[in-house]
Amino acid sequence: NVLPFEINRSKEANEETRLKYRYLDLRNKDVHDKIVFRSKVVDFIRKTMKEMDFTEITTPIITGSSPEGARDFVIPSRNYHGKFYALPQAPQIYKQLLMVSGFNRYFQIAPCFRDEDPRADRAPGEFYQLDFEMSFATQEDVFKVIEEVVPYTFKKFTNWKVDEGPFIKIPYREAMEKYGIDKPDLRNPLIIQDATEIFAGTEFKAFQDKTIKAIVVPNGAAQGRKFFDSMTEFAVEEQGAKGLA
Fold first, then answer.
1. Which residues in the chain belong to E strands, given as ranges?
2. Pick from 124, 57, 119, 138: nearest CA to 89
3. 3-state DSSP call for residue 182?
4. Which residues share a beta bridge with 131?
5. CA-CA distances (angstroms) from residue 105 to 57, 96, 146, 166?
6. Are 163 and 187 in contact (CB under 8 A)?
7. Within 13 A of 4's CA, how many CA atoms are on the CB side?
8. Looking at residue 119, what is its pLDDT?
9. Block means of pLDDT (10 residues each) for the chain, length 245 residues?
């Protein structure tokens, strides 16, 4: 009558064992509380969207394949030999049908399925996302909805520091100049600065008549030469940042 693992320490067990005895794993308070937590978050999002006059609509899971960015999971049809259904990467086709059919503001907590490996900015396998659509909307209309939903969801369910709307809006050119990317993480205090003017009269040939960008690191002088050599090696060899000084 020995249990395969201690229930209050089930997360330390082998994943295969946890799945085999999932009914025991789910008794772990931490695992149990996470499922309840998700339910509360989804309820809050639903309530917020409905207060903004959005209608919740569920779209089909088994569908036809659509040419989007991710690879579909496909399901063979029993009735139509050699034919396949697909699981939606996101309910894209249905969004468009609903919009032209007069459902002016709709949302769903949409299941998305992507048969691909994880990427830095894309979840693989199965996940859920808040999906909403608005007819005749401007970019600002969309921002207003997001600014209402996202900050207050995080403020209610986390102890993180959360900025309320309106969100900071950075022009594309400014984002590329300061951060080198059009979706910067503003928690990073290191900002790219233009040092071209400072090196206008330089005799260092690599910098002559070139645009020079610099990252200012506070207290950087406290580091030894070895630190900078290792950082240069990391940037050039591992990250491909050739031309870095």
1. 55-56, 73-76, 84-87, 105-114, 125-134, 192-194, 213-215
2. 124
3. coil
4. 108
5. 10, 12, 14, 21
6. no
7. 16
8. 77
9. 91 95 96 96 97 94 79 90 88 84 93 85 84 92 94 94 87 94 90 92 88 87 88 88 77
